[in-house]
Amino acid sequence: QNQNEPPINMSEVNPDHLTVMIEKAPGEALQALLPGHSISLTLRPQSETLRFLSQKNQIASFSSRGPDISHQLKPDIVAPGQDILAANKNAGYSRGLNGTSFSAPVVTGAAALIFQLHPTWTPRDVKSSLVNTADHGATWNGVEARANDTGNGRLNVEKAAGTPALIDPVSLSFGVIEQAPSQDLETLLKVTNPSSTASQTVSAEFVETAPHPSVQLSVTPLALTLGPGQSGQFTVKAHVVTPLQYGAFEGYLRFSSSLSSAPATASYWGAFPVPDYSQLLKVSQDGSASYSTLSAAVLAARPGATIEIQDSASYAGSLVIGTNLDGLPVHGLKLRARSGQSPVLRPGSSSPGIVLSGVRDVTLDGITIAEGEYGIIGEQSTGTLANSLIDSNRIGVGLENSQLSLRNTTIKRSTSTAILAFFGRLNLADTTIQENAGEGIWTLDSPALIQRTLIGQNKMEGIYGIGESMSVFDSTFEKNQATGLMLIETSMLVKGSLIQDTTGQDPDGISALGAMTLRVQDSRIQNNSRYGLAADLGPDVHFSRNRVTGNRSYGFFLADASGTVDSSWLTGNGRGIRIESSDLDLSNSVISGSTSFTDGDGIYADQGRLAVRNTTIAKNQRRGVRIAGSEHLVANSILYQNGAGDLEGGEQSSIQNNIISDGVFAGTNGNMQTDPRFRD
Predict the structure, then answer these.
(1) Residue 224 within a domain
(2) Residue 619 has what pLDDT?
(3) What is the pLDDT of residue 79?
(4) What total number of domains does the chain contain?
(5) Phi and psi dihedrals of 161, rounded to 5?
(6) Mean pLDDT, contiguous 10-residue spans, the chain (680 residues)
(7) In a domain, 2, yes or no
């Protein structure tokens, strides 16, 4: 079945079964004869070995294509990399080898030959000799390959050795043009005469393999006369014509030399990503839609298009959402499941499910991604993940210099971290992150907004944030096996949230380290295995209208930090509040029912400064307030029925206008011993 196609590779090393390839017509005749007949074949060795090679000048299906993530023309050059015969490290040869692991050494060897021929040339000179003499005319899928398939073409080392000109840069990238510039796009090309003995004239002309109505190209001057080793410049201009129309423009500049019949060429490329929001591409594996693979639909999509999956099939392999066949970034693409369908992407354990590469405003809706290396990777991209399930991948979502919004989505059972973000930005709403083997969210310098989200039952921290800032509203962190929110120099606002039931070895509800500002408001922090909130090494903490209950060690702990606690309840914790070399203002709050029999104080201040105003400190297992070397003020407060005394270590002048049930300082500075007559 390979008529007019490249031969099938039958050269596997040590195959389990002997295989033979024959031509299409005899194969069909043999196939027709098989029913009802017994056929025997004799294979006779020949004195001559026939080698079936891949079709000449055809780009391999796995070859990397451009443009790069910055929308610059790539690759520079192509070289043989399929069905390669290469020396084996043990003995003999290996056949049928594929990949850039083989094409790259071919180019490296060619570069070594050019350096040997021209030892005074720079690396840029050698690069130009290889790239700007490459052969055009390769094909891909039966049609002429484009600039982003081949760069300047296929390596021709013989032509490189006799290059008529050295060109810098080796190609021209006009990039992605989203709106008409106010003036012409302009690029300078430096051309050098490589001859050390002869002058030459170099002329330049455009060969437009894909012209475009929205651009007019020009080059000046049309020719340069260069002495031996002399350099000159050509100015290339692109005049953009409005209104912009969708598409790419490409081709090459041909430089003809008076010394050589073989020209040098420099490819160029640019594109206009005019969106088409009406384009709908349907995908179904059973052949009932226009496309049977997601990759084919992405290559055909224009910016703003919608790809709709029509079935609930399982789609194997990775999907890269970056550029289409025109090399244009598919900004604004929507990939969605048809209503009532539940497609699953299964990339395999060593591959990502979906890669967003250099695209903006991509939406993924109603997708399940399972059992991959990553569920989603974002590289210099922005997008939205909605109504989706990311299940049983190694890492659920990985972002680098990218922004992703998650809505009504679940990420669970990752074998490592659920969301990993480097220098990105996160926005989560109505999302669930649970049962992951690592952190729920791990960020480095990645701001985040988290709303109405559940982060629970992860085997490490709910959030582990380093740098930048986060805001958390109306969310729940529960049953994580390490600290609920671990913050290292990450300023944060937590409002209206529940942080509870952390387990494992010494986890806290919230832990803050380093210079940062932490604000916690209208939240509950309860039943955590160590501290409700701990801050150390410089945080500034502002704690308002919160309930902190049932935490095993301290409800609130400051060390080398500062903060305020206002209008909050800290009840039933192992110990209420402890400060070490810290500055705390406490007001309008209740600290009661600390349970530790050994040191269950309401407040313990060791060095630093403590100010307590309008606060009730009652029925703690040990002391109400214990002061050790701290500057302090306790005023207008109630200290009542604390097990080991209401106040220890306070100076009389700093204890003012309080009700103190054990009578300490009664009758001085407005302090009194009386029953506050609590009703509850």
Answers:
(1) yes
(2) 96
(3) 94
(4) 2
(5) -65, -25
(6) 51 54 71 73 52 67 86 93 85 83 93 96 97 93 88 95 96 92 92 95 96 96 96 96 94 95 95 95 95 96 98 96 93 97 96 96 98 97 98 98 98 98 98 98 98 97 97 98 97 98 90 97 97 97 98 97 98 98 98 96 97 98 94 96 95 95 93 85
(7) no
**Cβ(606)–Cβ(583) below 8 Å:** no
Contact indicator for 115, 126 with CB cutoff of 8 Å: yes
Asked if 256 and 337 sit in the same domain, the reply is no
Distance of alpha carbon 316 from alpha carbon 338, whole angstroms? 19
Give me 506's structure tokens: 């010494």
Helix (H, G, I), strand (E, B) or coil at 672: strand
**Whose CA is closest to 364, among 349, 380, 351, 375?**
375
pTM of the model: 0.84
Read off the CATH number of the domain in which 70 is found.
2.60.40.10
Q: How big is the chain by its Cα radius of gyration, in Å?
A: 36
Kind of pairing between the strands at 200-210 and 223-226: antiparallel
Q: Is residue 638 part of a domain?
A: no
Q: What pLDDT is attached to residue 27?
A: 75
- Residue 662 contacts residue 646 (beta carbons within 8 Å): yes
Query: What's the confidence (pLDDT) of residue 1?
Result: 44
Q: Extract the tokens encoding 269.
A: 């490329």
**DSSP-derived secondary structure for 334-389:** EEEEPTT---EEE--TTSEEEEEES-SSEEEES-EEESSSEEEEEES-EEEEES-E
pLDDT tens per residue, range 446-483 = 999 999 999 999 999 999 999 999 999 999 999 999 99
CB 255 within 8 A of CB 265: yes
The answer to whether residues 125 and 166 belong to one domain is yes
Same domain, 261 and 117: yes
Q: Residue 336's beta-bridge partner residues?
A: 308, 365
Tens of pLDDT, residue by residue over 269-285, are 999 999 999 999 999 99
The answer on 370 and 232 residing in a single domain is no
Strand partners of residue 521:
495, 544
Q: What is the pLDDT of residue 96?
A: 80
Distance of CA 621 to the CA centre of its chain: 51
Out of 415, 442, 474, pick the residue that ends a domain.
415
- Assign residue 330 the CATH number of its domain: 2.160.20.10
Where is the domain boundary, 390, 415, 440?
415
Question: Are residues 117 and 194 both part of a single domain?
Answer: yes
Q: For residue 425, which of 364, 384, 388, 485 has the smallest C-alpha distance?
A: 384
What gap in Å lies between CA 401 and CA 424, rounded to an integer? 5
**Across the strands, what pairs with 5?**
none
Residue position matching structure tokens 């919160």: 546
482 inside domain: no
Query: Is 667:674 a contact under the CB 8 Å cutoff?
Result: no
For residue 244, give the DSSP letter.
P
Q: Where are the beta strands (DSSP E) in 102-147?
A: 139-140, 143-144
Q: Is 440 left (phi over 0), alpha (psi -120 to 50) or beta?
A: alpha
d(CA 359, CA 378): 9
- The DSSP code for 118 is -
**Same domain, yes or no, for 262 and 292?**
no
Same domain (yes/no): 93, 141 = yes
Same domain assignment for residues 372 and 267: no
Give the β-pairing of 231-240 and 185-192: antiparallel
Residue at 501: amino acid letter = D
Which range of residues forms the domain containing residue 381? 276-415
3-state helix, strand, coil in the chain (%, to 5): 10, 40, 50
Rounded to whole angstroms, the Cα distance separating 184 from 236 reads 10
